[in-house]
Write a structure and sequence with these properties.
295 residues, alpha/beta, 8-stranded mixed sheet
């Protein structure tokens, strides 16, 4: 497996075609986020679904700045060992954006902030509580870093009562140390297990990418491990290198294989599973919750 600046991504197969969404809503979302000086993972991570989501007036807010203290080999977010100080007005601006966009469901994620004593947990909690105060009916999902597996910080976020606590396992155990920066497979499983045990009914979610060099058996093992850790909701999507300098793409699993993983996850007890090439961790998160409510 290599990691250099000469990698070229294989040609996209016919089942991966990102639709270019037109319309006024995308521009409106972009203008509101720009005016309020808010970051989104949609832009920072170069998500292939940005056009579709923004045209639906949906965005995943990225808090704690736009510089990550880690440098994972799959991720397009910028990194820096000394990011900007916490912006204490950010929660209020997110609440304002949610109100202006008329959102009913919000996803909040962040860069990893190893420079902060609590990893930014208190800021997550403040964003949740501020949103609830100003938009009481809004559903909230948080997609958090690992907080270095500190229970006190995980509990800080859980105490604010998001609807969903999400932390991504990202890849299979064999590849985790090579691809993830300062993170590892067992630590992520521990975070998820702690969240499950301390969450008092909060839904626990995790996701991984495929195409990084894993085997099908390793994916099944990861699904099993996530279920054992107490995860309720699973997402699996296709890895697409953001640039030629990121981790090498190894394969494009066919849609039928994603369907098999989804069926397996539901069979062993996940409440919900979304597995398809263009699925991303927060993609159509509102629809997911709506489906769960119908069950």
């Amino acid at each position: 497996m290599s990691y250099n600046n000469k990698i070229k991504r294989p040609k996209l197969p016919p089942w991966i075609r990102v639709r270019v969404s037109a319309g006024t809503d995308r521009g409106m979302v972009e203008n509101i986020l720009s005016d309020l000086k808010l970051n989104t993972v949609c832009s920072s991570a170069k998500c292939p679904n940005l056009g579709e989501c923004w045209n639906k007036k949906t965005a995943t807010f990225m808090i704690l700045g736009d510089k990550c203290t880690r440098d994972c080999k799959f991720c397009a977010v910028n990194h820096d060992t000394k990011p900007s100080p916490i912006d204490n007005e950010e929660p209020a601006r997110i609440a304002e954006a949610v109100q202006k966009l008329g959102l009913k469901f919000v996803v909040i994620t962040s860069v990893t902030r190893d420079d902060l004593p609590d990893g930014g947990a208190a800021h997550f909690a403040k964003c949740i509580s501020t949103l609830k105060e100003q938009n009481p009916s809004v559903g909230i999902e948080v997609l958090t870093p690992d907080f270095n597996d500190k229970l006190v910080d995980i509990k800080t976020v859980l105490t604010a009562k998001p609807m969903i606590f999400n932390h991504n396992i990202e890849t299979v155990e064999r590849l985790s140390k090579q691809i993830r920066s300062k993170a590892n497979y067992k630590k992520s499983l521990s975070v998820l297990k702690k969240a499950s045990e301390a969450g008092d009914g909060i839904l626990i979610k995790s996701g991984l990418m495929v195409g990084l060099g894993e085997t099908d058996d390793e994916i099944i093992q990861t699904i099993d491990d996530l279920h054992s850790a107490g995860v309720n909701i699973l997402t699996i999507g296709q890895y697409l290198p953001p640039t030629s300098s990121h981790w090498e793409l190894q394969r494009y699993p066919k849609p039928e294989l994603f369907e098999q993983w989804q069926k397996y996850a539901l069979k062993i007890g996940f409440k919900y599973a979304a597995c398809a090439p263009l699925v991303r961790s927060s993609y159509n998160a509102e629809n997911l919750v709506s489906d769960l409510r119908k069950k």
